[in-house]
Specification:
The protein is an alpha+beta fold and 212 residues long. Helices cover 35% and strands 21% of the residues. The protein has a domain of 143 residues: Adenine-n6-DNA-methyltransferase TaqI, Chain A, domain 2 (Alpha-Beta Complex). The strands form four sheets. It has a four-stranded antiparallel β-sheet. It has a four-stranded mixed β-sheet with strand order 6-3-10-7, with no helix packed on it. It is globular, with a radius of gyration of 20 Å.
Length: 212
């Protein structure tokens, strides 16, 4: 082990920031280059790695903040009220997935950096740092570059690659489970009141579930 400004770290590792491993806001739609429609994620639709709401718009009718093109392996972190934990890992998006400019979008410089970047910037200490740095009483926020400048300990490339081999499948499985849970939750909210009131029989519920 060796001493560093972040405490003891393994020999051969170094202290840096996430900007060493990722690009900030690397892909944006412009008035000349954009898809005909966008599937838009706003800050209110994201919570602790759950994307709870995606709205489709014609590009010309989308909110003016719908400009951040989201790609596989990106991490999005809300810069407004960062303590609200509006962050998510982007796994296999469609080509029109778009985030608000209220997100800092961290795109890994190499594919195997993706899970490390996500886990480093969303750990409790990192989110607490952003919350403490947020300026403004009514609308506390940080600049996107503050997110990219999150301090971290950087392992040798081969160690990060091995870390990715273990953690990336976990993140992908979390995303798959989230996608499966959404229609089940919607079905529950639709059928449960009818079941409790007696307007729906258990056999009918089974039929609805089998149709998923």
């Amino acid at each position: 082990m060796q001493q560093s400004e972040l405490g003891l770290i393994p020999k051969g590792w170094r202290v840096g920031t996430l900007a060493d491993l990722c690009e900030l806001n690397a892909a944006k739609w412009t008035d000349k280059k954009h898809p005909p429609t966008v599937r838009y994620i706003d800050l209110r639709g994201v919570s602790s790695n759950r994307i709870e709401a995606i709205t489709e718009y014609a590009f010309d009718e989308a909110p003016s903040r719908a400009r951040m093109h989201l790609r596989e392996g990106d991490t999005i972190v809300g810069t407004v009220r960062p303590g609200n934990r509006a962050f998510a890992y982007i796994h296999v998006p469609d080509a029109s997935l778009t985030g608000s400019t209220g997100f800092a979008v961290l795109s890994p410089k190499k594919p195997h950096y993706a899970s490390f970047v996500y886990l480093a910037v969303t750990r409790d200490e990192a989110i607490e740092r952003l919350a403490n740095l947020a300026d403004g009483a009514a609308y506390p926020a940080v600049r996107s570059n503050v997110v990219a400048e999150t301090p971290c300990v950087i392992a040798p490339n081969e160690v990060i690659a091995e870390f990715s081999a273990v953690t990336k499948p976990m993140l992908e499985r979390i995303e798959q489970n989230s996608q499966q849970a959404a229609p089940l939750a919607a079905l529950r909210d639709t059928l449960l009141p009818r079941l409790i009131s007696g307007r729906l029989r258990a056999r009918e519920v089974e039929h609805h579930v089998e149709g998923l």
